[in-house]
Write a structure and sequence with these properties.
The chain has 2 domains: about 70 residues, first zn-finger domain of poly(adp-ribose) polymerase-1 (2-Layer Sandwich), CATH 3.30.1740; about 70 residues, no CATH class. The chain is built from 2 helices and 8 strands; from the N terminus they run βαβββββαββ. Strands 1-8-7-5-6 form a 5-stranded antiparallel sheet. The longest helix has 8 residues. The radius of gyration is 15 Å and the shape is globular. Bound molecules: zinc ion. Zinc ion (ZN) binds next to strand 4.
Length: about 160
Amino acid sequence: MSARFIPIPCENVIGWQAEGVDSSGLPAKQKISDGDGLSCRHCLENIGKGDPYLVLAHRPFSGLHAYADTGPIFVHAAACRRAESSDTLTAIFNSAGYILRDYDNGEIIVFGTGGVVDRARIIDRAETILENPAVAFIHARSEQNNCFHCRIERAST
Ligand SMILES: [Zn+2]
């Protein structure tokens, strides 16, 4: 079972970059990167020192419900190219550990399958989780701050 890492859709990011509102109904805040480990959830690359970026609240779910938590993310303030969905880890995974939290088709957490994994084990763990037919997708989040990084699904081929 292959795992595919999926960045935030372009339509979300283009809206934020055009001064649209975030999942909290507020405009994104623009800041300048100090180059210290910030990563863009659209191109899945690090945000370089001196580059402008947006801090905003994102709810990576299709609807509002008890499991649809909202949290802070970063994206480039200037247009950037969305990363291709991929079966390899990108630069966005630059910390030691990550939370893999698993959801069913109704976006409800599948209890007993999620957890914290070392960076080197993310792909193996995601592939194992996706063997469970109850799991529709996974969210990869930072271990330290619980920030959403990307969605992980089964590769279609
Ligand atoms: Zn970017």
